[in-house]
Specification:
Layout: H1 8-19, E1 27-33, E2 40-45, H2 62-65, E3 82-85, E4 100-104, H3 123-126, E5 140-144, H4 167-184, E6 191-193
Parallel strand pairs: 3-6
Antiparallel strand pairs: 1-2, 1-5, 3-4, 4-5
Length: 195
């Protein structure tokens, strides 16, 4: 069973689910790199049962990136599928004004998983990389923290709406980590990135 590409029909279905949510107002605007089309701003709701969004980890990114690495996955490992960047470049001594959390499904090559080739290629992410590194699959979602200048834990940094002003920096962050992941050919590794 192959997994369908992201499309405007899929996006409108997700947006209707968010619109009909019983927790109105508990969402933030994030940047989605879909498998088909250009990056776009989308709404990301809080996880079920969350009453206050203290960090990106209180959100439900699975609406936009799905679960796990296979079509029949039933769980989502937040620590394995997210990375919070508070400095860019990663060896910079000064923290960014906002940190950025990147959510994606683990990237497994055919050598490591029978399901790697069933997920659609991500055109938006692969357009950021060199031709030899164009192997990224599935959607990628980027969430911005509240203004914290890197001084808070990734679990208490708050969230704020990402905007078009963030696109250039976020593209650089996504490009850097896609290159690293493609070079290592291992699943996307979670955790806070600091020098």
């Amino acid at each position: 069973m192959s997994i369908p590409r992201f499309s405007s029909l899929v996006q409108s279905g997700i947006e209707m689910d968010i619109f009909n949510d019983d927790q109105p107002g508990l969402y933030t605007t994030a940047l989605l790199y879909p498998t088909h089309g250009e990056p776009l701003l989308v709404e990301v709701p809080a996880r079920f049962g969350v009453l206050a969004m203290n960090s990106a980890y209180d959100l439900d990114p699975t609406l936009w990136i799905g679960l796990g690495t296979s079509p029949d996955a039933a769980s989502f490992d937040m620590d394995r599928c997210a990375i919070t960047v508070s400095r860019w470049p990663a060896d910079d001594v000064l923290p960014l004004e906002f940190s950025y959390t990147v959510f994606c499904a683990p990237q497994l090559s055919g050598a490591y998983s029978d399901f790697g080739d069933q997920h659609p290629i991500n055109e938006a992410v692969n357009a950021l990389t060199a031709r030899t590194a164009r192997c990224w699959r599935r959607n990628v979602l980027v969430v911005r923290s509240a203004q914290d200048a890197g001084g808070k834990s990734r679990y208490s940094s708050g969230v704020s709406d990402i905007s078009e002003r963030d696109f250039y920096l976020v593209n650089a962050i996504v490009r850097g980590y896609v290159r690293l992941t493609a070079a290592l050919r291992f699943p996307f590794i979670g955790g806070q990135v600091d020098p």
